Amino acid sequence: MLWTQRFFALLDVICLVLLAEQAYTQYQSLLSNEVLTSLEFFSRTLFLLGWFSLIFSAILLAIPKKAGLWLYYAQLPLRLIFFIFSFGFISLLTYIVNWPIITNMLMPLIVFGELLRLYYAVQIHRNYHK
Predict the structure, then answer these.
(1) DSSP string covering 5-27, please?
(2) N or C: which end of the chain has fewer CB within 10 A?
(3) Predicted TM-score of the model (pTM)
(4) Which pLDDT band, with edges at 50, 70 and 90, does 98 fall under?
């Protein structure tokens, strides 16, 4: 199960890299002279906090520490709100294959992968971090 946590850390690093451009855009929008509503400011700040927390969860899961699982549990609402999915890299298939059936199946597959990760995280937590 320790290798499973390290695999989760690798997924977090992949997610971190793939969302780097979006995080940079969000950061630039906060620094610009653009007038933001409180909701826009709040959502961009939450996205950046979720993105930065991927760094710490990847480190803590690679070690593997119990705090990495707790951080993953705390990230879960942000992951669902902002589509920061561990298996989001699967959506890159649309650049290779342009079949409508695959495009329709990708999002449920990615969400299923995230729920499967949550299930295994809870199992690891129960069995190894009592």
Answers:
(1) HHHHHHHHHHHHHHTHHHHHHHH
(2) C
(3) 0.90
(4) confident
